[in-house]
Amino acid sequence: GEVATMMDVPITKVIGTCMSLGIMVTMNQRLDAETLSIVADEFGYEVEFITTDIEENQEIIEDREEDLVSRAPIVTVMGHVDHGKTSLLDYIRKENVIAGESGGITQHIGAYAVTLDNGQKITFLDTPGHEAFTAMRARGAQVTDIAIIVAAADDDIMPQTKEAISHAQAANVPMIFAINKVDKPAANPEKIKEQLAGMNLLVEDWGGKYQSHDISAKVGTGVKDLLEKVLLEAELLDLKANPTKPAVGTVVEAQLDKGRGYVTTILVQAGTLKVGDYVLAGKNHGKIKAMYDERGNAVKEAGPSTPISILGLDGAPTAGDKFNVFEDEREAKQIAAKRTQLIREQSARTKKHTTLAELGRRIALGQFKELNIIIKGDVDGSVEALADSFSKLSTEEIEIKIIHKGVGAITETDVNLASASDAIIIGFNVRPAGNARALADKEEIDIRNYSIIYDAIDDLKDAMEGMLSPEM
Ligand code: GDP
Question: Coil, helix or strand for 390?
Answer without folding.
Answer: helix
